[in-house]
Amino acid sequence: MNFFEKMKGHTQSPPRVGSVEILWSWLGSFMGIAAVGLIHFKLLEQTSLMMIIGSFGASAVLVYGAIRSPLAQPRNLIGGHMLSAVIGVAAHQYLGALPWLAAAVAVATAIALMHATKTLHPPGGATALIAVIGGESVHRLGYLYVLMPTGLGAIVLMIVALLVNNLSPHRRYPEFW
Question: How far apart, in Å, are the Cα atoms of 125 and each of 67, 71, 91, 113, 121?
């Protein structure tokens, strides 16, 4: 098979999910992002701390909308975000004078580390990137970024996922720890 033949794909699109599944996904993502957002805007907004980062939106897609995916499991959610945050902060601190290089090193290294530790979580790549390009409010946090917003926010998303996803008799989360 030649290079361009591979780009055609070889299977059909997966079937559409039912309305009930869509509702549970909506409810879980609403509750998860609302919980993280409430902590951020009601408790932390007046401090130099934060609780909500863009990559949590992508995590919500996985942990509330694709709950059976290996990429959505608690180990991947927590480990992927936190390891990626460490890599992102280190990349910024050592290579921040060259932001394009720091960004590339952060994302590529985060992916490699997540693979090596069986914690692959695609939003982790964004978490590493945010540590590099997130601006002064993120850079000021330094390695605190790993714990808050990253670790604590991911834990809040996971707790909500455990509660909401298991309310439905047809859903089960997690598949593994």
Answer: 19, 13, 13, 11, 8
Q: Which two tokens stand for residue 147?
A: 């714990």
Instruction: For residues 126 and 145, give the distance between their C-alpha atoms in angstroms, rounded to a whole number.
Output: 13
Q: How far apart are CA 117 and CA 81, in angstroms?
A: 12
Cα dihedral 18, 21, 80, 32 in deg (nearest 10) = 140
| Stated pTM of the model | 0.93
Which class for 40: exposed (0-12), middle (13-18), buried (19 or more C-beta within 10 A)?
middle
How do residues 46-72 score in pLDDT, each as one tens digit? 787 888 999 999 999 999 999 999 999
Please count the other Cβ atoms lying within 10 Å of the Cβ belonging to residue 151: 17
Rounded Cα distance, 140 and 61, in Å: 29
With both helix axes pointing from N to C terminus, report the angle between 99-116 and 74-95 in degrees, rounded to the nearest 10.
150
User: Considering only CA atoms, which of 150, 153, 122, 152 is closest in space to residue 134?
Assistant: 150
The pair of structure tokens assigned to 86 is: 């460490």
Of 69, 74, 73, 59, the C-alpha closest to 28 is 59
pLDDT tens-digit readout, 124-169: 999 999 999 999 999 999 999 999 999 999 999 999 999 999 999 9
